[in-house]
Amino acid sequence: MGEEQTSRGQDSSVDGQDGLPSSTSPRRSPSGPPLSTWSIDGRSYNLFTLSLTAADPKDEPAPISCLINPLLVPFLPSPLPSRQQPPKDPSFAILPTPNKGAGMFATRSIPAGELIVVEHPALILPSSKFPDAVYEALGAALPEKRRQEMVNMADCRGREECPTVVEGVVRTNALVLELDPEGRLGEEEREIYGGRVSCINRIQS
User: Fold this and answer.
1) Where is the composition biased (Low complexity) (predicted)?
2) Could you give the 3-state DSSP secondary structure of residue 142?
């Protein structure tokens, strides 16, 4: 996301006190009123939290804090899909390496075609540059456990470039997402979106 960002300016307005969501109740469908609405350089964005419920009620749902152009909301799946569970028998461990950071190491033989890892994004947002309050609101919309997982991830951006930890973590780790694969939005409304998952963002072989 970081290399493809475009500035949207710093003038913004928000519905809600102090720029934070008025509610953090997650929903199972993208329909309904947003937690807050931001207007930046003439373009509107809705902030809301989605919840992917697990098939087993004993498992925790996967909350996702989203900042999305409201024109995209009708194209999101409704109802939302269920949270996919990670493999019951993990085939790898995350271990430190001498000079390449953390690495994934196989702990057993992995058959061809086996599912290795499943994760859902904690944040979904455009790659544009937003005011600091937007990133703070995105992080605040997550449950505390999920938010802590996010802010504890690698952040290679200095505070001069990214004043908030949330923005620094996003620009260090986010992967590109395609929210309008059929191109139903006009060219002037299309943007690059990114998603930041909680544990493993990039796996390089």
Assistant:
1) 19-37
2) coil
Closest alpha carbon to 30 in 74, 83, 81: 74
Helix (H, G, I), strand (E, B) or coil at 74: helix
Which tens digit of pLDDT belongs to each residue from 4-62? 323 333 344 444 333 343 344 555 556 678 899 998 888 899 999 999 998 788 888 89
Alpha-carbon distances of 125 from 7, 90, 102, 168, rounded to whole Å: 14, 30, 26, 13
Q: How many CB atoms lie within 10 A of CB 135?
A: 23
Largest CA distance in the chain: 54
Whether the bond between 21 and the residue before it is cis, its omega within 30 degrees of 0, is no
Task: Kindly provide the b/e burial profile for residues 140-159, where b requires at least 16 CB atoms within 10 angstroms of the residue's own CB.
Answer: bbbbeebbeebeebebebee
Strand ranges, E, within 81-120: 92-96, 102-106
Pairing verdict, β 36-40 and 12-14: antiparallel
Alpha carbon distance 19, 16 (integer Å): 6
Q: What is the pTM assigned to this prediction?
A: 0.79
Tokens representing residue 52 in the block:
């992917």
